[in-house]
Each structure stands twice: as structure tokens, then as C-alpha cells.
Design goal:
The complex is a heterodimer of chains A (352) and B (380). Chain A has helices spanning 57-63, 93-102, 120-131, 136-149, 166-178, 196-213, 224-230, 248-253, 258-265, 307-311, 338-347, and strands at residues 6-21, 26-42, 46-50, 72-78, 85-87, 103-106, 184-188, 216-221, 233-238, 241-247, 317-320, 323-325. Chain A is α/β, with parallel strands linked by helices and 352 residues long. The longest helix of chain A is centred in the middle third of the chain and has 18 residues, at 196-213. In chain B, α4 packs across α6, α9 (238-269) packs antiparallel against α11 (284-320) and α10 packs across α11. Chain B is elongated, with a radius of gyration of 26 Å. The N and C termini of chain B lie close together (8 Å). The chains are: A alpha/beta (352), B alpha+beta (380). The A-B interface holds A 62, 65, 67, 97, 100-101, 104-105, 107-109, 112-118, 126-127, 129-131, 155-156, 158-160, 162-165, 173, 176, 180 and B 8, 11-12, 15, 25-28, 271-273, 275-283, 286, 290-291, 294-295.
């Protein structure tokens, strides 16, 4: 991927939430929701971001259009329309407004993200009110064409969100996100709340839209199986830090971080021959992000943990072409890819 | 509930299948009304309240037979018996009352009423009576009903000055009901403003307002009211006192609403649709007016309805203690004040009828508030 195609570059992004106690709101500590995350997104690319609940994926997504104010770091945005670069860290109001026009979000819960008191037309056209100078008819035409594009009949425009199914509502949310013709879409668990069949439809639509409009996606999800189908690259997060980042295929074939391996183990399979065979499940919970473990954050749950993992935090380093991992033993550990895991489970005797 | 559910189901059917459903836009307001309708008690209460508003708040001059200040010769007269059958058992289509005389019982020194069964006085509708100015500016003399002759018809009896208690009760209900409404409007304004600022601004402003509410809530209400009411100059006009009392009562009433509004703001601010609006550069003011306020208006409405009775009771309590409204203004509290000692209650129990009005009005508001809450709450 050529450097010139980079549309979004995030460097050293940090978001610490203060923990306040007592009458005087004394700050007694910080939750490191996003801790030193750097990545790049190229035009037309989809970067999947995966991790357990509470690992900072959502905060990361919200920091980019500054719905959450980052503590530190630099977000550089370069789009075609302006050509120049837009550094979010030092951006003034107008630049943030410009950035928000070009980065739009799609939310997890399609009920909560649509105002229940507004009609679909009002919801979808609302971004135009503040960002474009259009007449009512023009707004209606724009909204209608986007609704049709996302698979909602435009004569439903005067209905209310509660009259639609979950999948339809998510399509409406997508239509709203697209109406300002953004360059980057941040999909925060955009399909997690939907039925599997509807998930597939929406994901297919995401792909079509990407081809048509050369959109870039940050696709946030909590399990790898969803991300696999859409992402060119995948970033695995653990406790606010990047554990591993690689091309999709590389990550599935040869993971370089034990956490990724355990995520691969947890992918549910529809193969009936695997029925009743045990799956390796990661023990324990995510540690408290306000009080993270010493050394490598993952050592408390890592099956391969050694003495060094408890004391020294492993840096994120490139272990292969475009493949980054934050593990001391990224080169030496015999971690299994997805196919290996499946065949291993197949060869095991039935568990029951 | 059932009707609301079924209408939700209908709405998900594709158009074209039921063209008659297509025409009906199922707005939130529509669903709200549907749910409210299923709450029988609230629906009936609403109609009764509307009836009271028409008869007592809007046109008490027309519906009451006499002016509330008109003094008759007959003091402490029990309610007149309106009859359809005369002493001989003959039926008459036109209701009538008998003429009466008051005599003193030489043994008990009680006044007793003696009716003259020979002298029938028919009750007429649409008669000309005491002149009045309806709503303060329409002059008139037309009254809904009245009785022939020089003696009056007293549905609720008369008080110790010989004034018609029925007419006084209708006029008093007007004062008591409006004081509740005006008070609630004032406290709503305060509650919305302070609660909104508290929820939106946060930080030390929030802390200050919340602690102020704590302090206000910790003061016992009646002594505070008494202190404030006692500070109203006695030489003020009745209207001036009326407004001061309203303000005093609403100064306490806003706290609950402010808390509700603050909580709503705090929870709505975190909703995804608000976040989405921030994400496409909606200005703060638009977010408040387009997203936040419409989404908690129904809660405000409910809390309004539920706080009207508190206002009415507050005014009644103050007037009963003699520090609220002063004669010649009549409120229900002023009327019940006459029934303050045990002797009056035993001898003239009809003086307690205005108290029944207080109970009814408070219950009506509570039932309506109950229905509104059920209708506004989508999870019940």
C-alpha cells in the first residue's frame, strides 16, 4: 500500500479516564482505555478492530471524530477534497467540524442511535441541516436516494424508527452516515446486535458501498468471525493496547500473539462434526484496566507466559512484512492458525 | 396496553397489505393517546376534570345561582331539599323547594328550619340573578338556575354570614385549581431551567444546584410557608397575595422536577442518537431542542400532573391556617377554615363539603397523572 494513499494516520493515541472519588472529586487514578495506539488506514481499506469488552475499541473509535477528547496523541487526516493534512490534536473548531463531515460513525444499537421522535426523513437528512445549504426538496431527494441505496423504500420516509426491524434501522443509520459523503466510516459493532442472516446482508452492503464510493472503514467488533469477512487488515486490542496487527489472511493463518490464538479458538463453528468437542476457552476475565498487570498485560491469562512476561512489557514490533505483534516470543511460539485449530479439534475424540 | 401492542404489530406489516393502515401515521403521540385511552380511571377522571374546569374555572358565575358575596338573612341554613314529590305525594316535572322559616328552639337554642308545605317555589333554569362579569370582563346576569320568590335555593346550605355555600364552593374551586396550575407552571419553569443547567453544565454548577435542592428539601414545608406567608404585607390587594402565595408554593415545588430533568438530561446526553448528532456537527442548541427536550417532554408532563395536587393541598393548608388567601377571595382552604372548630362541624356539617371538593380534585389529578405515566412509559 503506497504511502500517498494513507487517509488516516493515528499516532500514539491515548485516552485516560480519570477515576474520581469523594466529595471533592479527587483523582485517584486513571483508566487507560486507549494506551498508545498507532495505525494507518489507506483509502478503500477496511481495518478490523477486535477485542473483548472493555478493551478500548469503542473509545478508540470515538476519539477519531473527537466524540471523546483524546488525552494525547496525533490523528492526521488527509482527504482528497482538501489535500492538506488535518491534525486533530491541535485542531480548532472549524477543522474538527470539517473532520466530522468526513468521518462518520455507525453505532451498535440501531434503536438507540435513531431518535425515536423523528421520522426517517428527519433522521437521515439531519446532517444536511448543519453541513449543507439545501432546500427541503433537495434534502428529500438526497435522503430518498440514500435510503434506496441502503435498501429502504423511500416511500417509508415519513415513518418512525419503531416501525422498522433491527436490520432496517441499521440500514437507516448507515444512510444517515453516508449522506454527507464521508471518506471514512467508523462502524462500532455495527452488526453485533443483528441476527446472523441480517448481519450477512449488512456486511455485503458494506462491501458494495466500499466498492462504489471507495470508502475506508474502521470496523470494530468483538469477535473475529465477523471481521474476517470484511477486513483487509485486523488489529487485535487487549486492555487498550495493540496486541497484534496484520493482514487478515496472515492473522488467521499464523497468529503471532497468544491472545489472537485464543480468539481464534473461540470462533464458533457450524461444522456438525465438531459437535460435542471441547473448545479451548480463555480462563478468567479481562483485568481491571484501572490497575493493569505488570509487564505484559496478557500474562495473567496467557498459557505460554514466562518469567519475563511478568516484568517487562513487550513492545509492538514488526515480526514479518506488515505483521506487528506485542509478544516477547512472537517469533518462537508455535501458535496455531484457524485451519489448524479446526483440524485439531476434528481429530480429537468427542468430548461428551 | 393491549391496543398499543397490537398497533405496534400492525405497523410492521408491509404497506400495500393493509392500505387503510398505511394512511394512519403512527406517531408517538398516537401511541400515547392509545395507551392513555386504555386506562379507564384516568380517562373518566379527565372528563370529570374537564367538567370541573368548565363549571368552576371558566364559568362559575353562570353555574352558581348567586354571587359568592351575597348575604341572605338565613345563617347556617342546612342544604335545601330539592323535591319532585310534594307533601301529598303528587309528582311534579319541575323540581321545587318549599318556602321556609327559621325558628329558635327555646330548649336547645338551636335554629330549626320549618318548611311551609303549602308554598311551593319552582326551580327555573336560565334566570336573571345577581349581575357579574364573566371571566372578568363580560357583564351579565344570566344564571343556570334559580328559584322563584325572595328566598334562595341553597344546595350546600349557607355559612354563618348567610352566604350560599354552593356558589362559594364553585368560585373557590376556581381559585384553588388555578393556583395549582399557575404554581405548577412557575415551578416547571424553575425546574426545567435549573435542572437543565444542572444536567448539561455539570461540574460545580451541578453540585451547587443539587446541594441547594438538598437544603430546600430538608426544610419542613409548613413552617417555611408560614414564615414566607407571614412576610406578605397585610395591606396588599387580594390579587397580590394570590400571586405571592403561588410563588411561595412553587418555590418548594420545583425541586423534584429539577431532579427529574437533570437525570433525563444526563441519561439522554449519553444516548447514541445524541452522540451521532454531535458527530455530524449539530450545534448544542439544536441538540437540546430537537433531541433532548422532545424526548423527556412526556416525563415532564407526567410530573406536572402529579405535582398539581401538591400545590392545591399546599394552598389549602395555608388558607386553612389563616395565613394564605384572605377574604373576600374565596379558595377551598378559606371555606374549610370556617369548619375549624368542633362545634361548627357538629352543628353545621355541610360546611365540610368544600373539603370533599379538595379530595376529589386531588384524586382526579392523581388518576390522570397515573394514566399519563403509564402511557408515557414504553416499558410498562
Amino acid at each position: 500500500m503506497a504511502e500517498t494513499n494513507t487517509i488516516l494516520r493515528v499516532q500514539g493515541l491515548k485516552k485516560y479516564f480519570p477515576i474520581q472519588r469523594g466529595v471533592f472529586r479527587r483523582t485517584v487514578g486513571h483508566v487507560h482505555a486507549v494506551d498508545d495506539v498507532s495505525f494507518e488506514l489507506t483509502k478503500g481499506e477496511t481495518l478490523g478492530i477486535v477485542g473483548e469488552s472493555g478493551c478500548g475499541k469503542t473509545t478508540l473509535g470515538r476519539c477519531i471524530p473527537r466524540l471523546v477528547e483524546p488525552t494525547d496523541g496525533e490523528i492526521t487526516f488527509s482527504g482528497d477534497s482538501v489535500g492538506g493534512e488535518l491534525r486533530v490534536q491541535s485542531a480548532d473548531k472549524e477543522r474538527i467540524a470539517d473532520l466530522r463531515r468526513r468521518v462518520q460513525m455507525i453505532f451498535q444499537d440501531p434503536m438507540a442511535s435513531l431518535d425515536p421522535r423523528m421520522t426517517i426523513f428527519e433522521i437521515v437528512s439531519e446532517p444536511l441541516r448543519y453541513n449543507a445549504d439545501l432546500t427541503q426538496t433537495e434534502q428529500r431527494d438526497r435522503a430518498a436516494s440514500l435510503l434506496e441505496k441502503t435498501g429502504i423504500r423511500s416511500d417509508y420516509m415519513d415513518r418512525y424508527p419503531h416501525q422498522f426491524s433491527g436490520g432496517q434501522r441499521q440500514r437507516i443509520g448507515i444512510a444517515r452516515a453516508l449522506i454527507l459523503e464521508p471518506e471514512v466510516l467508523i462502524c462500532d459493532e455495527a452488526v453485533s446486535a443483528l441476527d446472523v442472516s441480517v448481519q450477512a446482508q449488512i456486511i455485503k452492503m458494506f462491501k458494495q458501498l466500499q466498492e462504489e464510493l471507495s470508502l475506508s472503514y474502521l470496523f470494530i467488533a468483538h469477535d473475529l468471525s465477523v471481521v474476517e469477512h470484511v477486513s483487509h487488515r485486523i488489529m487485535v486490542m487487549y486492555l487498550g493496547k495493540i496486541a497484534e496487527m496484520a493482514e487478515s489472511d496472515a492473522l488467521f493463518d499464523r497468529p503471532r500473539h497468544p491472545y489472537t490464538e485464543s480468539l481464534l479458538y473461540s470462533i464458533p463453528s457450524a461444522d456438525p462434526s465438531l459437535k460435542g468437542k471441547k473448545r479451548r476457552v480463555l480462563a478468567g476475565d479481562v483485568p481491571n484496566p484501572a490497575d493493569p498487570p505488570s509487564g505484559c498485560y496478557f500474562h495473567t491469562r496467557c498459557p505460554y507466559a514466562q518469567e519475563i512476561c511478568k516484568t517487562t512489557a513487550p513492545p509492538l514490533k514488526e515480526v514479518a512484512e506488515g505483521h506487528h505483534s506485542a509478544c516477547h516470543f512472537a517469533d518462537t511460539l508455535p501458535l496455531k492458525g484457524y485451519q489448524q485449530i479446526i483440524s485439531e479439534r476434528r481429530s480429537e475424540p468427542a468430548h461428551e | 396496553m393491549g391496543a398499543a401492542l397490537s398497533s405496534l404489530e400492525e405497523s410492521t406489516t408491509p404497506p400495500g397489505v393493509h392500505p387503510h393502515l398505511e394512511a394512519r401515521r403512527e406517531t408517538q403521540w398516537y401511541l400515547f393517546r392509545q395507551k392513555f385511552r386504555t386506562h379507564k380511571l384516568a380517562r373518566v377522571s379527565l372528563w370529570v376534570l374537564l367538567f370541573l374546569v368548565v363549571t368552576c374555572v371558566l364559568f362559575p358565575e353562570f353555574f352558581s345561582p348567586y354571587s359568592p358575596q351575597r348575604v341572605f338573612d338565613n345563617q347556617n341554613l342546612p342544604p335545601s331539599r330539592v323535591r319532585f314529590f310534594d307533601a301529598d305525594g303528587r309528582f311534579s316535572f319541575v323540581p321545587f323547594v318549599y318556602a321556609f322559616t327559621q325558628e329558635l328552639d327555646r330548649e336547645t337554642f338551636q335554629r330549626i328550619t320549618v318548611v311551609d308545605t303549602e308554598d311551593k317555589r319552582s326551580i327555573r333554569i336560565f334566570v336573571l340573578g345577581d349581575s357579574y362579569r364573566m371571566l372578568g370582563f363580560i357583564p351579565g346576569r344570566l344564571r343556570l338556575f334559580g328559584v322563584e320568590g325572595d328566598q334562595g335555593v341553597f344546595l350546600f346550605g349557607t355559612d354563618k354570614l348567610g352566604r350560599d355555600l354552593f356558589s362559594r364552593t364553585l368560585h373557590a374551586t376556581r381559585i384553588s385549581m388555578t393556583i395549582g396550575l399557575v404554581g405548577v407552571l412557575l415551578s416547571t419553569l424553575l425546574g426545567l431551567l435549573l435542572g437543565g443547567v444542572s444536567g448539561l453544565q455539570g461540574g460545580w454548577v451541578d453540585g451547587l444546584i443539587q446541594r441547594a435542592i438538598d437544603v430546600i428539601l430538608s426544610i419542613p414545608t409548613i413552617p417555611l410557608w408560614m414564615a414566607l406567608a407571614a412576610s406578605i404585607p397585610r395591606n396588599w390587594s387580594p390579587l397580590g397575595i394570590y400571586f405571592m402565595i403561588t410563588i411561595i408554593i412553587s418555590l418548594i415545588g420545583w425541586t423534584g422536577l429539577a431532579r427529574t430533568v437533570r437525570g433525563k438530561f444526563l441519561s439522554l446526553r449519553k444516548e447514541d442518537f445524541v452522540l451521532a448528532a454531535v458527530g455530524f456537527n449539530a450545534p448544542m442548541l439544536s441538540i437540546i431542542t430537537r433531541h433532548l427536550i422532545p424526548n423527556f417532554l412526556s416525563y415532564v408532563l407526567v410530573s406536572l400532573t402529579l405535582s398539581v395536587p401538591a400545590m392545591i393541598l399546599g394552598e389549602t393548608a395555608l388558607s386553612f391556617l389563616g395565613i394564605g388567601l384572605q377574604p373576600p377571595v374565596v379558595s377551598l382552604g378559606v371555606l374549610i377554615q370556617q369548619a375549624q372548630n368542633i362545634q361548627d362541624i357538629t352543628l353545621y356539617p355541610w360546611l365540610l363539603i368544600p373539603g370533599g371538593f379538595v379530595v376529589i380534585i386531588v384524586l382526579l389529578y392523581n388518576f390522570i397523572g397515573d394514566g399519563l405515566r403509564d402511557a408515557a412509559d414504553p416499558y410498562s
